[in-house]
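User: My collaborator and I are trying to settle a disagreement about how two of our proteins should look. Neither of us wants to argue from intuition anymore, so we agreed to look at predicted structures for both before our next call. Could you fold the first one, then the second, and keep them clearly separated?

Assistant: That sounds like a sensible way to settle it. I'll keep them separate. The first protein:
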Amino acid sequence: MTTGQTESIALVLHGGGGPQTVVPIVDHLAATMHVLAPTHPGWNGTVLPDDVTSVADLAGVYLEQLVTSGARGVVVVGSSIGGWLALEMAIAAAGSERYAGVIGAVVDVDGVGAVVDGEPIADFFALDARGLAEAAWHDPERGYVDPAGLTAEQRAVQQSNGRTMAVLAGRGMSDPTLLGRAATITVPTLVVFGESDRIVTPSYGRAVARVIPGAEFAEVHAAGHLPHLEAPDATWAVIDPFVERVR
C-alpha cells in the first residue's frame, strides 16, 4: 500500500460482497483524491493470514500499512463490513500514539458490527439469493442475481468469501463491545444509510451515530444496503460535502 502524500487520501473498504461492490465509490472519489481500494485478505481468492481472525485484527493490518506508507489524515470510507472495519480503525487510532493523525475522518455506509437493542442485524448467512435481494435492495429486482446464472468459479468465490466473512465477523456480523468502544472515536464521522436497508435499518445507523462524538447521520432515499449502487447521485450529495470539509 503506497500513497504519495501530495494529495488527500481515501481508503475505501468493501463489504462481504467483495471489491466490486465499492467500485462506484472508488471511481467517484478518484476524481479529487488518491484512492486506495484493497481487496481484503481472504476475499476473491486471496490468502487470509492465520493471525487475522477478527475485524479488529484486519483494522490493525491496514493501520500498520498506512503508518508504513507515511499516510496522514486518511479519509476511510467503508461499506457494510467495511463500515465496521472503518470504525475499528478509528477506535484503534484514537487509543494509540503510533496511529495518531493517520485517520482524518470516517464515512460508514450501512455498516454492520454493532449490537443495537431492538435493531437486530439480518441473518445474512440464512438468506438465499432472493431473500438477500429483498433485504439489501430498495428495488429487489435490481439486486437479484439468479444463482443458476453463475459459473462454477463464481459460486466458488462466493462460498469462499462467505467463509472468510464468517471467520472475521462471526455469523451474527457483530461485536457486542463495538457500540461502547465507538464512543472513543475522535475524528469526524459520517454515518450514511439507505432508507430501505433491511440488513441493518436506518434506526440502527442512527443509534451508531449517536454514540460517536459529533457524528453526522444521513439517509439516502430510494436505496438499500448499497446506496452507492442504487442511488449514486443522492449518495454523493451527502458524502461530498462532508469529505470536502474534512480533507
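The second protein, kept apart from the first:
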Amino acid sequence: MKDLVSIITPCYNSSDFIEETIQSVLNQTYDNWEWLITDDLSTDNTVEILRKYNDPRIKLEVLEKNGGAGNARNQSLKRAQGRYIAFLDSDDYWYPNYLETMIGYMEDHKAELVYCNYSRCDENLNPVLKDFQADKIVTFSNLLKTCRLAPVATVYDSQRVGKFLFPENSKREDHVMWLNLLKQVPEGYPVKQTLAKYRMRENSVSRKKKHIIKDQYLVYKDFMGFSTLKSLYYTANWALNGFLKYSKIFN
C-alpha cells in the first residue's frame, strides 16, 4: 500500500489559474493523496470552481476571515493525515510523475526531504528563464544565503520529522519554515528532474525583492535570533543571490 501524501494549498482569488492546477493534481500517476485546500476568503469565483470537482480526495475549507498564506497553509497542515507533505500553490503546476518520482526517491534513499528542478514560467506557463536546477544537497547553512526550496518542488516526510508550521507574521514565511525544518533534518536531497512549473507573476510578493529586504532581515534577526551584524551579512547574501536569480526577467 502506498503511503498517503497530503498536498497543502493556500488559495486566494485564483480563478484564472486554479483549473490548470487542479488538472495537474488529478493527472498524478501516484494516486494515494489527499488535497487540503484552504481558501483565504476569495472574492472571485475560485470556491465555485473548486466545488465543481467531486473527488473525495479534494478537501476544501473556506476561512471566515482573511489571514494570509501562512495561516491558510497552517490550517491545511493541521488537517493533514498523510506521511508525506507536499506543497502546491493555487497557480502552480505539477507534471504527472511529480509525486511518484519524488516519493520514489525518498523511499529508495531513505530521505527526509527532497526537492527537484522546476520551470520558471510567466502567467501562461511559458518559460521565461532556464529551469531552476536542484543541483546540490541543501543544509541549514547554505539555505541561510539563498532559499533553494520552492513549495511547488519540495516534499518532506512528516512521519520521520513531524509537521512544520509557517509563521503567520512574516512575508517570508516559506524561508522561515524551511530553515526551521533544516534545523532538524541534516540534509535535503536533489532530484535532478524537472517535475513542476512555477508561475513567476509580476505582482507576486516574492518577485519584488527590493521591497522585502526588511522582511528578509527579520528572518535572521527575529526568527533565527541572529545578531544585527550577522543578520545584515545574510541579508546581503540573500539579496545578491536574488538579483542574480531574477535580474533577466521582466526588465
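Some points you might bring to the call about the second protein. Strands lie at 5-11, 33-39, 58-62, 84-87, 93-94, 113-121, 127-132, 154-157, 189-199. The radius of gyration is 17 Å.
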